[in-house]
Known about the structure:
The chain is built from 5 helices and 3 strands, in the order E-H-E-H-E-H-H-H. With 118 residues, it is of the alpha/beta class. It has a single domain, classed as Rossmann fold (3-Layer(aba) Sandwich), CATH 3.40.50.10490. It has a 3-stranded parallel sheet with strand order 1-2-3.
Amino acid sequence: MLTNIRRIRGKNLVIISVSGRTKTNVELARKAKGISTSTLAITANPDSPLARECDETLQLKYRTTGILTSGTISFTTSLLACALLLGNLPNIVRVKAATMGTPQLATNLKQIGKGAFV
Length: 118
């Protein structure tokens, strides 16, 4: 994207970074200003540099296991957020409207067995 920023002209840009500090993503958000229609950060850190550079932020909220993993929980949470947005593409510019049902969905999730997932 950074090498051909014109590809996003007039489009909505969604940038995913759990930490919100990935330098390339922050630079992309910065360069997209005035070119893309809107920018959306999907991140666990709503106060991150990426969130500050984007028009809107969808905060990833998930419980950690306290055990170092390969990022499975955060990656899966990112995928679920993207799937939710894909199901609500007409509303993507209005993130709050597109994600209104997520707190209820998260509340209804139950842990099965001894696994440590959302």
